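I am going through a labmate's work and have reached the protein record below. What it holds is a sequence and that sequence's fold in token form. Please read both lines and tell me whether the tokens look consistent with the sequence. Do not assume that whoever made the record got everything right. Thanks in advance; the entry in question is below.
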Amino acid sequence: QMQLVESGGGLVQPGGSLRLSCAASGSIFRINAMGWYRQAPGKQRELVAVMISGGSTNYADSVKGRFTISRDNAKNTVYLQMNSLKPEDTAVYYCNAAIRHSPLLLTPRDYWGQGTQVTVSS
């Protein structure tokens, strides 16, 4: 049974920092990509940052220069370091992973975490 367990959300003042973590557990052959999405009230879920297995990264324009995604492959864990937080960063942040369970299965399966609330407010 695959699980993505997130941690690190909370309340922070504008200009502050938070670090989110997401650990994948279960039957894993290879993680093709891991990343973070967010959904603010009344808005669609949007990509924040993603890292693919080769190490390439992609960020939403709104977080470039402020957020950094990193991965610990040995722990199947992805991190999101969020600096210079703004009130508009307030949202539920979801971890996402594309995982292959077997060398025989070329198409990865998509998994989501339960979400962690990030609130930026004074």
Summary: The radius of gyration is 14 Å. The chain has a mean pLDDT of 96.
